[in-house]
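Researcher: Structure for this, please.
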Amino acid sequence: MSRRPCHCRGLARVLAPVPLVMLAWAAYAQAADPAPLERVQTIPLKGPAGRLDHLALDGAHGRLFVANMANASLDVVDLKAGQLVKQVPGQQGIAFAADLDRVFVGLAAGGLCNVFDGADYKLLKAIKFADDADNVRYNPATHLAYVAHAEKALAVIDAKTFEVKADIMLPGQAESFQLEKGRPRLCLNTPSPAQVNVIDTDKNEVVAHYPLRRAAANYPLALDEANRRLFVGCRKPPTVVVLDSESGNEVAAVPIPGDTDDVFYDAKRQRLYASCGEGFLAVLRQVDADRYELQEKLPTVKGARTCLFDPEAGRLYLLVPRQAGKEGPEVWVYQAP
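Model: Predicted structure, C-alpha cell format:
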C-alpha cells in the first residue's frame, strides 16, 4: 500500500517562526512606547491612618521631607537607604532652603511657621501668624520664604534673619502658588473666588487676576515658563485647566480623576502629572502649548492625592495613606523613562 507524501512538517517549519515574530514585535512595541511612570520603590513611614500633606526634597543629600499630618510630624526620609530616619513634631506646608540648609514648616492650626536646622533638626525659629500657616515656598535667588496663612494673606520672610518683610493681602484664602525663575512674579490659586492671582514679588502686591470659567475648586498649580502656560488643577469638575500666563485666557481643559491636590509639569518629557485622591496618578501629554491629552491613568490608592516630582532625576514621590494591614503610610517612588 503506497503512502501519499505528507507536507505537514514542511508547513510546520513555515508557521513555527510566526509566533516568535509576533512576540518580538510586541517586545519592540513595548520598548518603543514604555509606561510614562514605573513604580520602582516603596518606602514605609510610621503613623496612623489619615491625611498626608506636602513634601520637599533635598536632592544634594538624598532627603525627602514629608508632612505626615495624621501623625502630626515632619518625617525625614533617607532616599538612598529607602527608610524613615526621623520624625519631628509639626506638619503641613514644607519648603527646603538648600543654600541655607533650613527647613520651613507651616503648622496649620495655630498659625506657626517653624524653621529647623537641616543638619540636626533643631528648632531655630517659630514665626507666629494669626492662623492656618499652610503652603510654603522658597526663592533661593532672593533668600525669601513665602508662607500662605489666614486671613487671606501671603507672608514674605527673610530666610536668613527670619524677619517678616511683608504681608501681601489676597482676595481669598491661598492654596498652591508657584514662583517664576525668570522674573519677579508669583502665581497663586484662590478657590474662592476661583481664580489665579499674579503677584509682583518686587512690589509685594497683586497685579492681576485670572478668573476660571471651565472649572472651580482650584487647588494645585504648575507652571511652564518657556511656553507661558499655567496648569490649574480643579476638583469641580475634575479638570486641569490650561491658562496663558500672560493674558489669563483659558486655552485648554482636560478631564482627570477626582480630588487632585498636586500637579507637576515635566518640561523634559512634555508631560503633566496629577495625583488624584480618587485613586489614580493622571499623566497628561503636551502635544503643543495649546493642546493636551490624557495619556494614562495609573491606579494608586484612595486618598493618595499628594506628590512631588523631581525633574533632575525624573522621579515622582507619591504619599499613600496607611492601608489595612500596614504599619503606617508609605511613599511610592516612580521613575519616568
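Researcher: Any notable elements?
Model: The chain has two helices and 28 strands. The longest strand covers residues 216-224.
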